[in-house]
Structures are given as C-alpha cells and as structure tokens.
Specification:
- This protein has 12 helices and 18 strands.
- It has 398 residues and is of the alpha/beta class.
- A hairpin with a 2-residue loop joins strand 17 and strand 18.
- Helix 1 packs parallel to helix 5, helix 1 runs parallel beside helix 10 and helix 10 runs antiparallel to helix 11.
- The radius of gyration is 22 Å and the shape is globular.
- It starts with 16 loop residues before the first strand and ends in a 16-residue tail after the last helix.
Length: 398
C-alpha cells in the first residue's frame, strides 16, 4: 500500500451518540477513533461473539501507522506470521517454483504484518471494549432518518435514536442496502469463486503456502504457525456469480466438488474435508464500487463501501485507514461536511488499490494454459531450486 498522509489535529469535544454496524475490523477501528474524539459509541454485531481464528490478513503501509497510533502494533508484531515460502505446483503435483512471499506480494520484510484475522479482531476489540458499548447477537432491523437523527430498531427488540450510523458490515452490507438498494448494482464480479476452510495439517507444512494450479483452478494449503491445522483455499473461474449458492451451504459444497472432481495432488482429500468443515466460507471474488459512501446521517466504511477483493491483499489495510480517515474527517464538522471530506480525501487512495486488479486477470490464478505458462515462467525466474516436500503426486496416484 502506498503511503498517504495521516493528518493530526486536536480531537473535538464530546459531540453525539453514534451506532456502528459490524464488529470485525473496520467497525472496532472506527469505534476506537470516534470514542477518542469524544463520541459515545455503540457497536452492534450479528454474531454472538467475536469471530476467532480465520485466514491470515495483511497490514501494510499507512495501515501500520494507524495501528501504531492505536497502541496495538506491539501486540500484532507478537502474533505476526513470517511466511518462509510460497511453492507452486503444476497439475500433476510437480513443483514449478518456490519463492520468497515478499517477491510476489510487494510487502516489505520486517515491516509489513501478516496476522490471523481473529488476532487482529481481538486486538481491536481489546483497545475499545472498556469504552464502547457492544451489542452482540443483534443487528439493525430498520433505519429511519430525519433532520434530528436516525431512529434505529433492532432485531432483538427495542429502539434508539442516534446522531449518526455507520455501516462496517462487510461486502454484503445490510446497511448499504438500506441506503442504496440491492447489492447487485454495486457489485463488480471479478470472475472467480472461492471456498475457504480449515483441516488437519497432515502435510508437514510450517509457515508456508503450497498452491496447485491448472487453468482456471487453484488449490492452496496455508500453514500459518499452528502446526495442528492448515487453511485450505479452493479458487476457480466461473463465468457468472452463482447466486443460487450464496445462501445454501449444500449448493456451495456441490459446486466446488463438481469443479474439482478430476483434480489431482491433495485436492481429493481437501474435498472430503470440505464436506465435513464447520467453518466453510464461500464467496465470489468481487469489489464494491459506489458512487458515494454516505446518505444523510449514515456512512459506510471498509468493505461495505469499497471492498477491493482479496486479490489485491489490501482489504484489511483499506478498512483500517478508511476508519481513521472517516473519524478524523468528522472532527470539528457536522455529518454532511465530515462525510464529504472523508470521501474527498479517501476515494483516490481507495480507487488506486481497487484498480490493481481487473476481471479474470489475477496473476496467481490464470484462466488459460498460455497465461498459466507465462506465470510459471515468471515464477521460475524468481524462485529457488525445487524441493521435494508435498510437491510429488501422492502415493495413491492422484
């Protein structure tokens, strides 16, 4: 992530009561800064508790300065995952290349951070839990704006009025739908679907990623510190978003199993684990592109406003920087002027990162044989001599 200037000014005096929907990354980060600048903050989260574990996420560039100012940088450095290598395999499991992860991600070794999503969420929550009200196992049911505030009813019952409401509720944001309508009109599909889950680490992997590819398909095993389990990723090209599978876990499993039915290497075992996984996360690779990020007294932040897709590796960093910029933009301003400043100052930064990837052109997930060979040739130039672990066809002949 390229550096952007983080402004510093004297915090505003106490102003108003605000509600944030979402307690993953952007939500608690925004809660921290708004509380620091004098707002009375409530966070509502539909999950019954913080989500632990999860796949690793990157914190880069300007986002490192944000977490440093929050006082959680030392805690995050303690749980940093130092990946040693990325190994790429061809369709029969033969090694193509093994490379230093920083050569591909653009990260800066010793500076940028990679941590489990749950470790970051825990650090953010710990920074605010004594000062901010959290409502778990609940969500916004209705929003009604007036010149005096925002009347909110909650699914769990009860209602309150807030001066401002913020949607930090992810790619499939309910808050955004309240403001601007169905997701489809803002959803930029990038041509891929993916399934993520964990399984037992019977592969001998430690602090590394091994990725198998054929055109339009990728299977990866990601060992991040915990020797007992690995993160599995099954990614594939698909011409249209499979809307029928979005809310149907059985349909998700069937779709993925069908796409990878004839795959070799460790994929058959991964599909077996997929069927039994209790932490399956299925989605499409996409971006959210909105003409504006606010309406009236309600604003969006993070993936709800400008998801860049995991292909950029910047979603977490954009959420952290966006939360800071939104809170700072409100200091000394009313909601209308503050939201306008937030968008004016932050949109060019967001757009530059969203534009890093286009539809179907993810370098690590080629969709044609010729593109895959070009990628492999590039990797061979970057790589080290082949090693043997996990890079041969399995004994079963897969």
């Amino acid at each position: 992530m390229n550096p952007t200037r983080i402004p510093t000014q004297t915090p505003a005096p106490p102003v108003s009561r605000v509600l944030i929907s979402g307690a993953s990354i952007a939500g608690p980060a925004l809660a921290y800064w708004l509380n620091r600048y004098g707002y009375a903050v409530t966070v509502v989260e539909k999950a019954s508790a913080l989500r632990g574990g999860g796949y690793p996420v990157d914190i880069r560039g300007t986002a490192l300065e944000v977490v440093r100012r929050m006082g959680i940088l030392p805690q995050l450095r303690d749980v940093h995952i130092d990946l040693r290598r990325l190994t790429f395999l061809d369709g029969d499991g033969t090694e193509v290349a093994s490379v230093d992860p920083h050569h591909l991600t653009g990260g800066v070794g010793g500076e940028d951070l990679e941590v489990r999503r749950g470790d970051l969420t825990e650090a953010l929550y710990g920074a605010v839990r004594g000062d901010v009200e959290f409502l778990f196992d609940d969500r916004i049911e209705t929003l009604d704006q007036s010149e005096h505030g925002v009347d909110v009813t909650f699914r769990g019952g009860g209602s309150r009025t807030f001066d401002m409401v913020f949607g930090a509720d992810g790619v499939h944001s309910r808050t955004r739908e309240f403001l601007f309508g169905p997701e489809e009109q803002f959803h930029r599909y990038l041509g891929y679907c993916f399934a993520g889950f964990t399984l037992r680490n019977s592969f001998g992997l430690t602090d590394e990623v091994t990725m198998w590819n054929t055109p339009g398909r990728a299977a990866a095993l990601y060992a991040a510190g915990d020797g007992g389990h690995v993160h599995a990723l099954l990614n594939f090209a698909h011409p249209e978003p499979p809307f029928h599978a979005f809310r149907d876990p059985h349909a998700q499993r069937d779709l993925v199993a069908g796409v990878f039915a004839d795959a070799g290497w460790e994929v058959p075992g991964m599909l077996t684990a997929l069927r039994a996984a209790d932490d399956l996360f299925f989605d499409v690779v996409s971006q959210i592109r909105l003409p504006r990020w606010s309406s009236g007294r309600v604003a969006l932040v993070g993936d709800a406003a400008y998801a860049p897709s995991f292909l950029t590796g910047q979603g977490t960093s954009l959420a952290l920087v966006g939360a800071y910029m939104l809170a700072r933009s409100l200091v000394g301003r009313g909601h209308a002027a503050g939201f306008a400043a937030y968008e004016h100052d932050t949109r060019p930064f967001v757009t530059a990162h969203q534009d890093q990837v286009g539809e179907g052109d993810a370098a690590l997930f080629p969709t044609t044989a010729s593109a895959l060979e070009r990628r492999n040739a590039m990797l061979r130039k970057l790589g080290t001599p082949p090693r043997s672990a996990l890079t041969r066809p399995c004994a079963t002949g897969r």
